[in-house]
Amino acid sequence: MDRSYQQLDTLLHQPARLSIMAALAAAQEVEFAVLKDTINISDSLLSRYIGMLEDAKYIHVRKGHVGKRPRTWLSLTATGRKAFSEYVETLRKIVGHNIGSA
Amino acid sequence: MDRSYQQLDTLLHQPARLSIMAALAAAQEVEFAVLKDTINISDSLLSRYIGMLEDAKYIHVRKGHVGKRPRTWLSLTATGRKAFSEYVETLRKIVGHNIGSA
DNA sequence: CATAGTACTTTACTGTTTGTAAAGTGTCAA
DNA sequence: TTGACACTTTACAAACAGTAAAGTACTATG
Q1: Residue B76: inside a domain, yes or no?
Q2: Which of A4, A10, A71, B46 has the most CB atoms at less than 10 Å from its CB?
Q3: Touching check for B96 and chain A: CB below 8 Å?
Q4: From CA B39, how far away is CA B50, in angstroms rounded?
């Protein structure tokens, strides 16, 4: 209706990154490999997207070990959670209220 | 959760084009110039996006006149309406069922 | 000790998309 | 004849997306 589409966070308006955020919004912490398998993305892309989301301070990256092997866990920051809900809210403004036929 | 993000229609997953579709979903027919002002986009981009949506048979373009001046009206096709709701449905699956509820 | 594997990260590169600006088309009014 | 209107098309630079391959650091195995 208005020009709210211009307020869509472009970092989040990307299918894979949005999926990452949504997965993290649903859980408290998710392993790199689990995320990778869940959303079906290559290591390299996931790694890069995580870097982008981390740079924006949308997610927190925790590195640790399971046994002796390295492992990475991801979680949303408060900023990320806020950005995610604002993104969803903006989407609703654009798209919502006219989803009559399913 | 799954890899449904890969099913997001890339033609619709673009802020301005999504806004066009949403505007058309809300009305039966919209004038080119009205759409242009409503979503705040340049003529050239709007024209191109309309072309893309028309090629996909998502919208119907009707050309006529008001007085002696040319005018263009846009409307959703059944295909377009379906694509739009499927897009919204897919988004819902990704973000967790929080979009589009009135 | 050497080699292979795990768990990512980085680099390189190609193809696509985005937005803007400028020029073009056809009709109409002054 | 010149300018305006309502778009359309072309040209182009910048940004993005995805893939593949190589790199890093550590561990496990023969």
Answers
A1: yes
A2: B46
A3: yes
A4: 13
Q: Is the pLDDT of residue B39 over 70?
A: yes
Task: Please give the Cα distance from B38 to B27 (Å, whole number).
Answer: 13
C-alpha distance from A29 to closest chain B C-alpha (Å): 14
A16 in any annotated domain: yes
**Residue A58 corresponds to which tokens in the numbers above?**
């949308």
Give me the pLDDT at residue B102, please. 41
Cα separation of B59 and A5, whole Å? 19
Contacts of residue B36 in chain A, CB cutoff 8 Å? none
Q: How many domains does chain A have?
A: 1
Distance CA B76, CA B20 (A): 10
Residue B13 sits at the chain A interface (C-beta within 8 Å): yes
Examine residue B18 and state whether it is found in any structural domain, yes or no: yes
